Amino acid sequence: MLQLKSFTFNPFMENTYVLYDETKEAVIFDPGCYEKKEQEILHSFILAEGLKVKYLINTHCHIDHVLGNSFVKKKYNVPLLIHQNEVIVLKSVSAYASNYGFPAYDESEADQFIDENDQIKFGNTILEIKFVPGHAPGHLIFYHQDTNICIAGDTLFQGSIGRTDLPGGDHQTLLSKIKSEMFTLPEDMTVYPGHGPETSVGTEKEYNPFVGKRARF
């Protein structure tokens, strides 16, 4: 059975997720671990659970979601998977990382491109993918039907949506994609966002002020 462990790292309070099943194979999503103590927290969990990391995946490549990419790639000798549209987003991080207080940021490169027609397979688990741009040009979400888990990155939050004023963002695209892609998922599916607490598809369809039935914006 698929299991999920979340960590909150860096000053942006970014959520990093580890998914694993009974085979002990695992994937790491959006490692925000920049400080050594944060990296140790993540690694201690991997060791304690006896996990074998198979993939590193970025839902998108804004700085807060990629600070630990290099650490994870080197520590576990795994490939980094992103959408091709995120290449320029990832490459640009090194140019501004020090301005955000991360002078020791270590640049990483993608090893494999993925999109909505692909699947992520590890252990006995298969994750499906949806393409939900708007917050970032190549933003992907990942979901598992059997356990009703969705790794949503910065698309949909509890009571909010991802910001769209960054380069490559588009507000109307994000609104449209949340409705056409995320809101077609089961209403009882748990949404694990890139920041803040988890929510559900049904709750956001009803109450989200940006895209729900009672939208105010």
TrEMBL record:
SUPFAM superfamilies: Metallo-hydrolase/oxidoreductase. Keywords: Hydrolase, Metal-binding, Zinc. Residues 13-195 form the Metallo-beta-lactamase domain. The keyword Transcription does not apply. Gene3D superfamilies: Ribonuclease Z/Hydroxyacylglutathione hydrolase-like. This is MBL fold metallo-hydrolase. The keyword Thylakoid does not apply. Its cofactor is Zn(2+). Signal peptide: none annotated. It holds the Pfam family Lactamase_B. InterPro entries: MBL_Glyoxalase_II, Metallo-B-lactamas, RibonucZ/Hydroxyglut_hydro. It comes from the Bacteria.
